[in-house]
Amino acid sequence: MEVLMRNMFQSLGKSPSANKLAKKYGLRFGAGRFIAGETIRTAIDAVRRLNADGKVVTLDHLGEFVFTKEEAIESADMCLRTLDAIAEAGVTSNLSLKMTSLGLDISKDLCMENMRKILDRAKKYGNFVRIDMEDYAHCQISLDIYRELRQEYDNVGLVIQAYLYRTEQDIADLNEINANLRLVKGAYKESPEVAFPEKKDVDENYKKIIKQHLLNGNYTAVASHDEAMIEFTKSVVKEHGIPKEQFEFQMLYGICEELQAKLVKEGYKVRVYVPYGIDWFGYFMRRLAERPANVWFVLKNLFK
């Protein structure tokens, strides 16, 4: 049953008609728990609240799979405006983005042009930009672009997914450029030809790459709500004397808030991934696909 629900939500997330309907009716039925509104103002308000609780943030203006140059330029402009708003408000937040929203599927040159504009603006403010990893079809090109950008910029990082067979080798290769990585389990539906189909295998690989990247001496963002993975990370850093300045824990907005607060109290850096914007439906469906508990939260809202 859980697998069927996960597949259904993943399919819905890719449906243009479902996305159109969601935009029409707005952030209803519980989506507001996971998305900080549709405007920069509401997003900055969320960042302020999280900062007041001792957490840092990465803001993501939601959007992916644009199909025109105009849409890509508009999406890049929203990233620039987000960086401006962070600086003007004096809040503590990085920027996260998806390169498909910047025109990657239209032209690599267009995407690179937009990425350079965003990284230049971030550098001006002393800020940092994280490139989200997308589905497997975009994995190699994302790695290639990241390597190219790292030749010019030191304020850019990448996301790496534990459920892919190739990930251990990718991290070994990225050690050459001292990559700043966010390590995640992975939220897209992928073929067993490229990804571990069993959760236990994903979990084991996740532990392996957390330890691998930490021991390489590179900055590591462990993005998980799985307490076993968090405790594993704590044990690795304690055993090997890794300073708290070399890693952070990352969690999603609206999820495991008590655990976030506990980690802050223990003195760990906790960064909350805060998405906002009108193109929120695909992200919301992936959150429902990941955690059945999120589905029940939404169903309860339907009957309020």
UniProtKB/TrEMBL annotation:
The name this protein goes by in its record: proline dehydrogenase
Origin organism lineage: Bacteria, Bacillati, Bacillota, Bacilli, Bacillales
Biological source species: Ectobacillus ponti
Cofactor dependency: FAD
SUPFAM superfamilies for this protein: FAD-linked oxidoreductase
Domain called Proline dehydrogenase: residue spans: 44-298
Family matches, as Gene3D superfamilies: 3.20.20.220
UniProt keyword annotations, A-Z: FAD, Flavoprotein, Nucleotide-binding, Oxidoreductase, Proline metabolism
Note on cofactor: Binds 1 FAD per subunit.
UniProt catalytic activity: L-proline + a quinone = (S)-1-pyrroline-5-carboxylate + a quinol + H(+)
Transmembrane segments: none
